[in-house]
Predict the structure of Sigma-54 factor interaction domain-containing protein.
Amino acid sequence: AKKIDVRLIAATHKNLEQMVKEKSFREDLYYRLNVVRIETPPLRERMEDLPELVDYMLQRLNKDRSTGTTEISKEAMTILQQYDWPGNVRELENVLHSSSVVSKGKRILSKDLPDSLTKFLKGENKKGKNVAKDSNSESETKEQQTTDRVVEKEIAPVAPAFGLESLSGKKFAKDSDVSTPSAPSSISPGESYDIAYAHARETSRTNLLEVVEKEMIQRTMKESGGNQVKASAMLGITRATLRKRIDLYGIRY
């Protein structure tokens, strides 16, 4: 008999530990496989990798299947970045393969993408529409509550020092006044900037941009439930940049 040296690499998207507890996966096999463990986050949590993955897959598809499609338009890429990818990298590869077959040139256009994907993003799925509507309504309510709270607790006491005598026709109390008037029920966008600026000036006489940026990231992370993908999309930055800012400012959420 000949001896052979074998290294086995196994991959799965299942929770093997849970399956072992449920007796649906052999415990002895699990421990034989689980020597060096590498966990790869799902695609939706590393969207900054999407452009490179798309480029790699298009080049490979063209090499293996002679699709003739090696590029993707900005519009199509934007759609891919907005999708949640429940099927992970394999679903991405399937979408690119399908789009390459449909495409009439070397570049995938938004119209070449599968209808199921574009319809999902447009909210034509009834469930998706309801969720989006409820989410927006809840977000607007939270935003208004946050604004009113900031005006009442933080801006009113310091407003005179920064030349803010009133907002929406409501006068702030002077230093000599005993009582503080209640916060206005609504404010204009311009007054919102006054609030943010006054708050930043109260926090720091310098580095105003850092104060505002840190506050925005903290609030966005809280609103997104700690989801960095959603938060980075709301802020208009990449997830990698968001992670750097979180580490830089020591943000906890």
The chain is about 55% helix and 5% strand. The longest helix spans residues 126-158.
